[in-house]
């Protein structure tokens, strides 16, 4: 009796188990990059004088919530969550330069650690370690790890969101997709431009779905949509306030100078991008998914900001710093790309650690960039710290102070530098910045009425040396001061001059 043929069994492809690492191995991997980034960020963290945007952070973060709300209606709404966090930080730890910048240094340390973990998940442990160290050693990471602005947090949350994306792909349940959405929301809250990392995530997920056909991966759309929806109010308000960033340019100089500004120096940019391009060529099709993710992350946000510049004016290197981890990961993948040329699996991690040579080359050429990161003041900015100290040392009771300059106005900077001292009366203020709900005060239409009989006025001028020190002041104010006072040069600091205006009719 012939047996009936057995129908073929359709094999069900089992899901690969998610990769797991011990807590000890994770800590040991994360510590060296975090330590390097923190050390370089903390060294000299309080020695560089603050600059315009950091003074803005101090001003906004020390306002009452009522005054802060009034400010955010007019300007900087997209940075509101950072200001709120910094408000409580200042309450706890004070407002020294070191204290204001320490959150950024800690965020950079966390970012370097997360980059190492992301590199391990994308490639292997050796690549992760090299990537975290490369990121931590970048001059721009030092520079913005020593800055009281939200960019360090933006980089960190971009890495965190990408790491959560990979975890959700390994086990695509709703809980993990919600965690991914939360990471994206945090990235958008600290700086809205960071959400352009979604362009890279979208390219990566499109390829992953095309390869696997797993319908659960479509849950990514829900997570991404949730993050975009949460960010829409900030984005809409920021769009209303776009006039405050109208000064940003996307001309040839901005484009060609972007690598130097993002990496911190041309030398470092060349080393890292050369290693990244070599890794891209060597990895080829073997790790196409990882390459799609990292190349999209590195390239799509700048291209998007450039193409949409006429609408949004977002093509600024500081806004694009969150692409640095992608470059560090690609550069570190050079070692991993060489693994296929070895015949033994046991040599995998040691060979991938050869990417530490990229780190060594980068550190070798990073000296000028690291020195520039610590230059006081920031290149191109006025030395308001030195100028304020000079005025405080020379001022007498009854003196006044006034500010001129069409690019930087020293009023907010002097408020910070003299926060624990008695600065001369600001003689031209008619309506304070708090009352205006802006970063700038409203000056008197009738300067004679406001100045009164003040015998000496200290003029803080950020005008170029070949221009009148009163350039930027209203004509009526200039006319009154030149008529009533004798202008005497007093001290010159980097990009700022101090003049003593002595009353002519005082005997």
UniProtKB/TrEMBL annotation:
Any one Gene Ontology molecular-function term assigned to this protein's record: pentosyltransferase activity
Membrane-topology annotation of the record: Multi-pass membrane protein
Key words of the record: Cell membrane, Glycosyltransferase, Membrane, Transferase, Transmembrane, Transmembrane helix
Glycosyltransferase RgtA/B/C/D-like domain residues: 90-206
GO-annotated cellular components: plasma membrane
Database matches in InterPro entries: LipidA_mod_glycosyltrf_83, RgtA/B/C-like
Record's subcellular location: Cell membrane
UniProt-listed GO biological process terms: lipopolysaccharide biosynthetic process; response to iron(III) ion
Transmembrane segments: 20-43, 71-90, 126-142, 148-166, 178-205, 217-236, 268-285, 291-312, 319-339, 345-365
Entry-linked PANTHER family: MANNOSYLTRANSFERASE YKCB-RELATED, UNDECAPRENYL PHOSPHATE-ALPHA-4-AMINO-4-DEOXY-L-ARABINOSE ARABINOSYL TRANSFERASE
Protein name as catalogued: Glycosyltransferase RgtA/B/C/D-like domain-containing protein
């Amino acid at each position: 009796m012939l047996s009936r043929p057995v129908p073929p069994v359709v094999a069900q492809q089992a899901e690969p188990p998610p990769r797991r690492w011990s807590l000890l191995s994770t800590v040991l991997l994360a510590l060296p990059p975090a330590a390097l980034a923190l050390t370089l960020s903390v060294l000299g963290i309080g020695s560089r004088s603050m600059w315009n945007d950091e003074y803005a952070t101090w001003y906004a973060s020390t306002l009452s919530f009522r005054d802060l709300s009034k400010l955010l209606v007019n300007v900087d709404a997209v940075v509101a969550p950072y200001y709120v966090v910094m408000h409580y930080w200042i309450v706890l730890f004070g407002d020294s330069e070191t204290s204001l910048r320490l959150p950024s240094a800690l965020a950079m340390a966390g970012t370097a650690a997360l980059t190492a973990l992301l590199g391990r998940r994308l490639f292997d442990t050796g690549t992760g370690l090299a990537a975290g160290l490369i990121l931590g050693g970048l001059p721009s990471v030092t520079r913005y790890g020593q800055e009281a602005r939200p960019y360090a947090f933006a980089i960190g949350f971009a890495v965190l969101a990408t790491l959560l994306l990979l975890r959700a792909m390994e086990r695509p349940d709703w809980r993990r997709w919600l965690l991914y959405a939360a990471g994206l929301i945090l990235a958008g809250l600290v700086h809205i431009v960071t959400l352009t990392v979604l362009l890279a995530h979208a390219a990566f997920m499109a390829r992953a779905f095309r390869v696997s056909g797993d319908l659960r991966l479509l849950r990514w759309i829900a997570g991404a949509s949730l993050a975009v929806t949460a960010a829409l109010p900030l984005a809409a308000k920021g769009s209303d306030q776009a006039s405050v960033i109208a000064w940003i340019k996307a001309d040839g100089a901005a484009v060609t100078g972007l690598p130097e500004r993002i990496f911190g120096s041309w030398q470092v940019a060349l080393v890292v991008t050369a290693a990244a391009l070599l890794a891209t060529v060597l990895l080829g099709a073997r790790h196409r998914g990882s390459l799609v993710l990292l190349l999209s992350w590195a390239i799509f946000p700048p291209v998007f900001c450039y193409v949409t510049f006429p609408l949004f004016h977002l093509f600024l290197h500081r806004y694009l710093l969150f692409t640095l981890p992608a470059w560090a990961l690609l550069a570190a993948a050079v070692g991993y790309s060489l693994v296929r040329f070895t015949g033994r699996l046991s040599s995998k991690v040691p060979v991938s650690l050869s990417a530490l040579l990229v780190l060594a080359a980068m550190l070798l050429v990073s000296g000028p960039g690291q020195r520039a990161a610590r230059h006081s003041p920031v290149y191109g900015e006025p030395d308001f710290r030195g100028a304020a100290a000079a005025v405080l040392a020379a001022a007498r009771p009854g003196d006044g102070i006034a500010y001129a300059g069409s690019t930087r106005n020293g009023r907010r900077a002097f408020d910070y530098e003299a926060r624990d001292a008695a600065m001369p009366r600001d003689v031209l203020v008619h309506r304070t910045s708090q009352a205006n709900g802006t970063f700038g005060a409203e000056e008197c239409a009738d300067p004679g009425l406001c100045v009164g009989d003040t015998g000496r006025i200290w003029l803080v001028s950020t005008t170029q040396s070949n221009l009148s020190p009163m350039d930027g002041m209203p004509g009526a104010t200039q006319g009154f001061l030149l008529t009533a006072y004798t202008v005497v040069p007093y001290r010159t600091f980097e990009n700022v001059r101090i003049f003593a205006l002595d009353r002519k009719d005082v005997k």
